[in-house]
């Protein structure tokens, strides 16, 4: 008989835990969370006298197997591209949100390897080099780099899974 306004994957966990309801305590609220790891790189023209640069606001590329995605974002008034390499389809889900809203997540596993993002880097790096752009980071982009420099791209979801916490109409079970 009550309406609960939701507030996203993290806020939902907080709202439902605060209700301190005996039924809710038995549901796996926040016991799962899905997210994608991402790494940001910066590209600039190889030639400082570059007469043109890629004039895009936001562009997204996905691999055919849906394992990675790349976001290209133009920095306004400067010929710099922010290139985000990100996981796409995830095969593992290792994470949770605790009652204090602390997010514990492991982005990489045997099913979701950092090499996937290395593959994305090799693809986009070759394409950007072809049109005269270079990565500003001189370090090798390998699995170690990906693990040490990745973070969330904040597409959290799955903390209140269907048929476990909510029904097909998104009502709490």
Outline:
This protein has 173 residues and is of the alpha+beta class.
How would you sum up this structure, described in words?
The chain has about 170 residues and is an alpha+beta fold. Helix content is about 20%, strand content about 25%. The longest helix is centred in the last third of the chain and has 16 residues, at about 115-130. The radius of gyration is 20 Å and the shape is elongated. The model has no long low-confidence stretch (mean pLDDT about 90).
Task: List the SSEs and their pairings.
Blueprint: H1 8-18, H2 22-25, E1 37-45, E2 58-62, E3 68-74, E4 81-87, E5 94-97, E6 103-106, H3 115-130, E7 133-135, H4 143-149, E8 151-152
Antiparallel strand pairs: 1-4, 1-7, 1-8, 2-3, 3-4, 5-6
Strand content: 15-25%
* Average predicted confidence as pLDDT: 89
| Count of helical stretches | 4
Specify the structural class: alpha+beta
Uncertain runs are none
Helix/strand order: HHEEEEEEHEHE
The total strand number stands at 8
Q: Ends: how far apart? A: 13 Å
What gyration radius follows from the Cα positions, in whole Å?
20 Å
Please estimate the helix content.
Answer: 10-25%
Shape: elongated
Largest sheet: 6 strands, antiparallel
List keywords for this structure.
173 residues, alpha+beta, six-stranded antiparallel sheet, two-stranded antiparallel ribbon, elongated
